[in-house]
Specification:
Elements: E1 3-11, H1 15-19, H2 24-31, E2 35-36, E3 39-40, H3 43-53, E4 57-61, H4 66-69, H5 71-83, E5 87-92, H6 118-134, E6 142-145, H7 152-161, E7 165-166, E8 190-192, E9 195-197, E10 202-206, E11 209-212, H8 220-232, E12 237-243, H9 257-272, E13 276-278, H10 300-318
Parallel strand pairs: 1-4, 1-12, 1-13, 4-5, 5-6, 6-7, 7-9
Antiparallel strand pairs: 2-3, 8-9, 10-11
Helix pairs in contact: 6-7, 8-9
Length: 324
């Protein structure tokens, strides 16, 4: 039995930049294209690397900017992904309601989808799903809340809407934005009604401390260890997270070559490992087994190596180049 690796990309415009007065064009170029002075390192770059590795990516596209800028913007995001044969699934950042011309939930606002009543969540997720489909995406079957900010009512809303999978559960965010009732094991899939919960995967990077499998958070060595642990133990799936702008420095002014190298390394490792296969939610069986899944054990050497590398990468790619 091989392990399905879900390489998921939260694909979104920046609500923060919207609030600071960025134009929609500048926001799209920075957040979706990953454009800086050295080229484009966003979705086009990610698609090229996935294609080169023969891997399918899952792009969780946030349609909520359509409330402000119209549906055509979402079509510009969905089109390149669908044309290249990768999956488009549903993401939602409810921060965009702040600037909505006509909100589907009136004057009610919230940072996260979990801040809303069940009825409002059904309306908002249904609205986002319909925009995504009008933009050219197939009917989505998987969902992830922005900021991982879902609660148990979100799962009930997905059940009502016939969306089969949720991947909003991230143990690193429990007690904060993520308020879904904790799972028996941090990374074990669980069926709730008609909705399968597929947690974000991760490792213990020190005793009892969960570190999610996000490209910018985990070194290539840690990612390989986590993937190989999942394959050896026949985990049904392993869920990785990145973002459409994650290959850039935090100020979006230049590429972060350290993070780019991590993404390329994980693609190579999956391609070279017969027990791993990069797939989408449409490739999963209708239900995943719920047997408890353990995490790769911590390694002080791996953790220390990542911390040192992160310090060097921060100095190289994140420090300001502007004179004081």
């Amino acid at each position: 039995m091989s392990t399905a690796v879900l390489i998921t990309v939260d694909t979104e415009l920046s609500a923060g930049r919207q609030g600071r007065g960025w134009s929609v064009g500048d926001n799209f170029r920075s957040s979706f294209l990953g454009r800086c002075g050295q080229g484009d390192f966003g979705v086009p770059w990610l698609l090229d690397r996935l294609d080169a590795a023969g891997a399918r990516g899952v792009f969780f596209v946030d349609p909520m900017p359509a409330l402000v800028h119209g549906d055509a913007l979402i079509a510009d995001m969905v089109g390149p992904i669908v044309d290249r044969g990768h999956e488009v699934q549903l993401h939602i950042h409810t921060e965009w309601l702040e600037w909505a011309r006509h909100s589907p939930v009136g004057e009610r606002r919230g940072r996260n989808i979990g801040d809303f009543s069940l009825e409002d969540q059904v309306v908002l997720i249904g609205y986002a799903r319909d925009v995504l489909m009008r933009a050219g995406a197939p009917a989505p079957i998987a969902f992830r809340a922005g900021n991982y900010g879902a609660d148990d009512r979100t799962i009930a809303a997905l059940d009502r809407l016939g969306i089969a999978w949720d991947t909003s559960f991230n143990a690193g965010y429990l007690g904060g934005d993520c308020t879904i009732t904790a799972l028996p094991s941090l990374v074990t899939p669980q069926q709730r009604g008609s909705v399968g919960l597929v947690p974000v995967s991760g490792i213990f990077d020190r005793p009892g401390h969960f570190r999610p499998a996000q490209v910018c958070a985990m070194s290539a060595r840690e990612m390989r260890a986590a993937l190989d642990h999942a394959a050896r133990n026949a985990h049904p799936c392993f869920t990785i997270v990145t973002h459409s702008f994650e290959m850039l420095s935090r100020d979006r002014s230049r590429p972060n070559r350290a993070v780019m190298a991590r993404f390329e390394a994980l693609c190579r490792h999956i391609a070279a490992q017969p027990a791993l296969r990069a797939e989408g939610f449409r490739d999963l069986p209708p239900m995943l087994p719920e047997q408890p899944l353990g995490l790769a054990r911590h390694s002080y050497a791996r953790t220390a190596a990542r911390v040192v590398a992160q310090v060097l990468a921060t100095w190289r790619y994140e420090r300001s180049l502007r004179p004081a």
